[in-house]
Write a sequence for this structure.
């Protein structure tokens, strides 16, 4: 095990710990790290690895939120009904390597902006934008992007729902966690329709173990130990730097 892999394992542990505390899976940050040129990994390895890590991290968080009564099916189904098949379609869609990296860089740029400007506190409101139709379209669009780029989608859904004042912060985190889980599974299923890739398990298994441990700790700590707004602001800056580095190496003017 070389130094680069050890750094990657430790980074994945910290990402899972922090992201799980606010209801995210960390897929965008896993992608941002794995896509760095120093690791020389192909999209066929990067995409499923990020989704597998997502699934491991958010599963326990979703169960905890459900037991706490924060997931109400009549409220969350509009976000899932189209997003699940859309994520599958996005995962099935095979992109050229250059297009994937450019799309990933742009996606991370947008995600970093959304995280940075997300309001610190929200008051739930059943406003005019909280309708079944809007929620279905919102879930479907983010679901397709989730499958295409291999993020869970919560990093987009959560800030948008905060702006729309869809519900209190705890319910939004619960929905984001469930959304990430089902779309990661669906996107992974779409990718595997092309056949199982060589995932270099000797390289991937330590990463999965790291996010499992970090996710378990983070989902139980929650916001009691971490201030969510500071987590999101720091994550936004790191994601911006990673996105610029990816685009610098893969954007051809």
């Amino acid at each position: 095990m070389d130094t680069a892999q050890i750094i990657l394992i430790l980074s994945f542990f910290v990402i899972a710990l922090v992201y799980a505390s606010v209801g995210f899976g960390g897929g965008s940050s896993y992608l941002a790290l794995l896509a760095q040129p120093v690791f020389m990994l192909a999209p066929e390895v990067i995409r499923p690895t990020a989704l597998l890590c997502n699934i491991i991290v958010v599963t326990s968080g979703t169960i905890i939120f459900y037991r706490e009564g924060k997931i109400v099916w009549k409220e969350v189904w509009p976000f899932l009904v189209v997003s699940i098949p859309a994520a599958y379609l996005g995962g099935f869609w095979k992109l050229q390597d250059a297009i994937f990296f450019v799309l990933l860089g742009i996606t991370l740029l947008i995600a970093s902006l959304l995280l940075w400007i997300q309001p610190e506190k929200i008051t739930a409101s059943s406003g005019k934008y909280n309708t079944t139709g809007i929620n279905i379209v919102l879930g479907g669009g983010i679901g397709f992007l989730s499958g295409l780029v291999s993020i869970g989608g919560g990093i987009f859904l959560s800030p948008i729902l905060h702006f729309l004042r869809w519900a209190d912060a705890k319910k939004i985190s619960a929905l984001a966690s469930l959304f990430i889980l089902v779309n990661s599974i669906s996107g992974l299923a779409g990718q595997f329709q092309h056949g199982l890739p060589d995932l270099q398990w000797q390289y991937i298994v330590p990463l999965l173990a790291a996010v499992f441990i970090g996710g378990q700790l983070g989902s139980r700590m929650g916001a009691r130990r971490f201030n969510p707004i500071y987590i999101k602001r720091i994550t936004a800056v790191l994601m911006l730097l990673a996105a610029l580095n990816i685009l610098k190496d893969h954007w051809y003017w």
Remarks:
- The two ends are 37 Å apart (CA to CA).
- Residues 3-250 form one domain.
